[in-house]
Amino acid sequence: MGTSFTSVLSTSAKATSARTDRVCARRARGFSLIEISFVVILIGILTSVAVVGLNAALSSARLQTTESSLKTLKANISAYSARFGEFPSAIEDMIGVSYDQVPVDAWKTPFYYRQRLQALPGQQPYILASLGPDKTVDTEDDIDAHALDQEGN
Questions:
Q1: Backbone dihedral angles phi then psi of residue 115, each to the nearest 5 degrees
Q2: What pTM value is reported for the model?
Q3: Which long-range contacts (CB under 8 A, 24 or more apart) does 40-43 make?
């Protein structure tokens, strides 16, 4: 039995030291290309999910802001009618009475307003709407002020 206990410990310590040196040397080199790529891809996925959620929230906020502005404008048109005995002929008639400038929706487009000279029974005396995100008259995304009352909003 030519090996002593101290020589076995010495050999074991050298092996552990060599293993520790390899691990430390690997860590000192930094991250591999695959690890960095994985992190970059993960950050990209998380960012795209956040952007989609943010756009949905912004669209909802614009819609709610426009609906609220339409209700306020409708009330101001009624106040104008009570004060002057007639509805405004154009939205610009509200400047100086209820507004400092032409009121706009959340998409920075002036509200669509037309007075009906001869309203049929059951019709409102005027048309008041937002043209919506596409800013085009008579499309599906238009928001009608009178329809908001019928929906119970």
A1: -80, 135
A2: 0.68
A3: none
